[in-house]
Amino acid sequence: MRNDIIISGVGGQGIVSISAIIGFAALDAGLFLKQSEVHGMSQRGGDVQSHLRISDKEIYSDLIPKGKADMIISVEPMESLRYLPWLSAEGWLVTNTNPFINIPDYPHIDKIMAEIKSVKNNIAIDADTIAKEIGSVKAANVVILGAASPFLNLPYEKFQGAIKFIFGKKGDAVVNLNLAALEAGRKFSEKNK
Amino acid sequence: MRKSLLLGDEAIAQGGIDAGLSGIYAYPGTPSTEIMEFVQHSKQAKELNIQCTWSANEKTAVEAALGMSFTGKRAMACMKHVGLNVAADPFINSAFTGVNGGCIVVSADDPSMHSSQNEQDSRFYGKFSLIPFLEPANQQEAYDMAFYGFDLSEKYKLPVLMRITTRMAHSRAGVQQRDIKKQNNLKLPEDLVQFVLLPAIARKKYKKLLGVQPLLEKESEESPFNFYKDGSDKKLGIITCGIAYNYLMENIQNTNLNYPVLKIGQYPLPKKMIEKIYNECEEILVIEEGMPFVEEMLKGYLAKGKTIKGRLDGTLPRDGELTPNLVAVALGLTDTKGKDVPQVVVPRPPSFCDGCSHSDTYIALNEALRGYDKYAVFSDIGCYTLGALPPYNAINSCVDMGASITMAKGAADGGLHPSVATIGDSTFSHSGITGLLDACNSRSQVTIFILDNLTTAMTGGQDTPGFGKIEEICKGVGVELEHIRVIKPLKNQHETNVKIIKEEIEYKGVSVIIPRRECIQTLNKKNKEKFKNK
Fold first, then answer.
1. Which of A30, B407, B504, B520 could disulfide-link B378, Cβ–Cβ 3.0 to 4.6 Å?
2. Which ipTM value was assigned to this complex?
3. pLDDT by residue (tens digit) across A156-170?
4. How many CB atoms lie within 10 A of CB A192?
């Protein structure tokens, strides 16, 4: 079993929370894991990505080879496309549809959506709206993770367990909000895949 | 035993703590920052009373580590690769003095320059200083090397260099921890002049250092971090260093390629192992992250021996970080790739955060300089270097820590006016103070902005050594009180700020302008904490 995942977004959007939850779930399932992150200058509003690899065998490279990723999870639509060279032909692209515009020449969203839709296996989810309906836009990243969860080789309970552990310190309300966000994202994918 | 998920940086820190570390000294710099931060946030380190405050710069860090080692205790100094240039003086000389307690200097290289001004390879410093050096291939080795490195350092009474690269520093994996070692007791060096490098003593020290080299080579040959994996196909022998081993294994694990492989994690190079692979194989491929360090040594200046493939003959690119794909191509395997990046995707370079004080400062400075025919703004290393990008296009240099003030002084001495410097509060305490003293002594006509956002912002908001002391420091080195002007970089202060900047540009001497407003990132973090505690 092996899952190679690229997680992408813009510096400051908190992609680390997604990799932390998957990472915890993977370790809890007794798997090997390597996760490479971006620190430093790009975190100031630049494009950032994380390579997350989970496997039942020893993992060597910290970086995923191009053309070998099973999935791109992106919290920003244009950023999801930047890593297409890494995605395998049968891989899934799971992305938020809400653009983060901090550059003057940000392309028209329709053009971006058309490219996303042209990827064979794609899930484009308005995670911000779904998260707001549940209670807080802050849970948008977990909605996206929920949308990615059906395509990862990890039992759903492991994701729930990771959320309970990671958000546990912040109290029951935050845990429940994120569990609901995970569920809502998952339902969306099951309906739209 | 405990297993934790750690970044390479964190693995080094945890390894140090578990191996009896008494003090860690560092200046923040990507990709090394998280080593010190991990110790600062570690409950275990707090209970053990491990010294862990940031140093003013990398030179003071290495010197303090050497002082800690003088007392017989174990010390670490951590920095990014260019920080080792700053610390080169004590670092090189510490190979002559030797150490007492175990001493490890960690230097984190940044190939491909993700967050740096160059991509120098710290292994050259290791060879230059003639000390043993280590290069982990994974997070477990990074952890284990802290134990091993301290023991090796104490065995030979030499400092040990640990060289890592960005992917090692900032990648997480599971790390198995070991039993904790107690810290060393205070025990002074037996030789009272061990650390006195007077020429007559230094000459003896150098001979001693040269004499120990064969022993260090032998250590490398027996090191658990160097191993030889035999293969049946002797057409090619592969030598890998550090994390390059991972890219090789990634590519060959499910193929029928069966070349002999020499994996190196400890230097000086294990000569016998190198000889073996060289003699047994028809050609050699060297895969190393960074510069062609091993490749050049093997090839020699005239390259008259066997074919050595690597970064010098184009088998691998001459510069930049390795990737699994580049290594695949070097091995003659098929390259893989998904779809191309669609044309609609545009670059998203880093930029000032919304509400950043630097942006208001640069807008005011640009306006104050309008109307001057010739001028230059010399800048420095930090978030404010992003002022080079549009729409500001506000700065003309970024060379090394502290170079803004000294370059402005030199340019002013050369007749340029206005000659302006912009330097952050942390960079100022790192390397700006001595340059300011130079400028004051020659009464150069420079306008120096010390951009005080009350933190070391670029690396994530560490405490800055000169906090609360900047005006006093300026006064102390000779800036006149009426030419130390504190301004508030805010949009509604724009007119006042432009006026003050213009006045100081016209002053025929050294003037310092301090735009002071807290970094928006640290402010947000503090507000969040406040909210949480309510």
1. B407
2. 0.94
3. 999 999 999 999 999
4. 11
